[in-house]
Amino acid sequence: MITFTLELLIMVEKRIKRFKDVVRKRQPNLTVILENVHDQHNIGAVMRTCDSIGIMEVYILQSRENFQVTHVTLGKRTSASSRKWVDVHLYNNLDNCFKAIRKKYDKIYATHLSSDAKTLHQLDLTESVALLFGNERDGVSQEALDRCDGNFIIPQVGFIQSLNISVAAAVTLYEAYRQREAKGYYSNYPVLSPEKQEELFLEYKRRHDDRVINKHIEPEG
Question: Residues 129-178: pLDDT tens digits?
């Protein structure tokens, strides 16, 4: 019994240490917007990548009439773990979505091939930024592009000049990770204040203890 109790205490201490380490590396000034992405496998893959580099929330915009929904159910095809740790904001109205994002993030960049597009590596992804990825077939809508601060492309040298959306997001987000890691955002200079870290630690602990998984995401606007 004593051995069992000691092992349990060690497990709890390790879990607390793990939670605090993850919280310290969270990136509250970096997010992803998915516009009219209909494949839940793609959404789930993006969410897993977001969690892996410390993103705390994603925005799902379903503004097309045939895409609009009263809720999104993130089921088994998405990661249960990412649902627990990454908050999802669902919007049906494009203007409302961008207004909400502008309140929290300074810049919005879209993946879009245009004459003035920068390459991914020319972006400063250490600033407060939201990264917009569009529909699997049509890309980002013109209405959304008009509300962005710029466009970027991922350098490619093959015959097929396109990437699956979840792959494009992963490549982009790990470039953001590289830039932020170089500035110490994951080590010596965490973005979250100690007070915010403590708040987030308690929230994550609550989610873990309650086994919170929000399968049904209601639209916010």
Answer: 999 999 988 999 999 999 999 999 999 888 877 889 999 999 999 999 99
Find all residues with CB under 8 Å of 44, minimum gap 6, and list them. Answer: 74, 77, 78, 79, 82
**Which residue is listed with tokens 């990770």?**
177
Q: Evaluate if pTM is beyond 0.90.
A: no
The answer to whether the CB of 151 falls within 8 A of the CB of 116 is: yes
- CA distance linking residue 188 with residue 182, whole number of Å: 10
CB atoms within 10 A of CB 192: 20
Helices H, strands E: what count in the chain? 7, 9
Domain 28-217 is classified in which CATH homologous superfamily?
SPOUT methyltransferase, trefoil knot domain (3.40.1280.10)
Domain boundaries, the chain: 28-217
